[in-house]
Amino acid sequence: MHVLGYFFAIVIGLVMGLIGGGGSILSVPVFAYIFKIDAITATTLSLFVVGVTSSAGSVGFLRQGSINFKTAFMFGLPSVLGILFSRRVVLPHLPPFIINRWGITITKEMFILVLFALLMLISAFKMISKTDRQRIRKSEDVNYTLLISQGLLVGIITGFIGAGGGFLIVPALVMLLGVSMKQAVATSLFIIAINSMIGFVSSLDKVDVDWPFLLLFSALSVLGILIGVQLAKRIEGRKLRPLFGWFVLAMAVFIILNELFLKQIV
């Protein structure tokens, strides 16, 4: 099973390189179900993997000058506050049992995994949708209130469930700031890298990290994204998005069924 887990580490990076995101959403299920790591630790390790892999993916954009640092600061600062709120305030104070009555038991770990699965469903539907992200309508006026609230929301999601939230960041940057799609993707990767690493560091005192395992897993993900970036020059990643979306959808349904129904039966 661990061999399968390491294979998925490469897949995570490969998908991110091919379609510009989405692969990191697999890291928490891989940690939780293949490596049997508890949900809190799984989301923490996922933040490290997402951060390292996004950093590797953004190096090329940095060299091209595609990252809009002003935008990254405007969106990223509220995101950082959201991450710290999730990791330092919300997660430590969640009770061990969210629901434990009427014959229904929902533990803290089950709750986190179900929320993660719901995010996977949203992400999957966006990838399956035929709507071309290049056609996202740009707003004529910059709505800074909405921009800050969106950044805060992304940070809370990133901190709570260990996912990058790129599918939320890119449309927000295009619609609210009117940046180009290429610049939005590049800036999004940069924001995700910074946010994820801050979220990981803020949780180091709460979890025990198996560094050899985490560094090996992250290295394989980086290898995957480097391969994916090269393949993207020959393969149109946009055509692969729906296929990967169906896979993510199937995984999300499995997690929800397993956590809310199968475990209740057992």
In short:
By secondary structure, the chain is mainly alpha-helical. Helices cover 74% and strands 3% of the residues.
Report on this structure.
The protein has helices at 2-19, 27-34, 39-64, 69-90, 108-128, 144-161, 166-177, 181-201, 211-232, 237-265; strands spanning 97-101, 104-107. The chain has 266 residues and is mainly alpha-helical. A two-stranded antiparallel ribbon has the order 1-2. A hairpin with a 2-residue loop joins β1 (97-101) and β2. The longest helix has 29 residues, at 237-265. It is globular. The mean pLDDT is 81.
What would you call the shape? globular
Oligomeric state of the chains?
Answer: single chain
The number of helical elements comes to 10
Poorly predicted ranges: none
How do the strands of the widest beta sheet line up side by side?
1-2
Structural class of the helix and strand makeup? Answer: mainly alpha
Amino- and carboxy-terminal Cα gap: 22 Å
Percent of residues in helices comes to over 70%
Q: What's the mean pLDDT score? A: 81
Which percent range describes the beta-strand content?
under 5%
Please outline the major beta sheet: 2 strands, antiparallel
Q: What sequence of helices (H) and strands (E) makes up the elements? A: HHHHEEHHHHHH
What is the count of β-strands? 2
- Measured on Cα atoms, how large is the radius of gyration? 18 Å
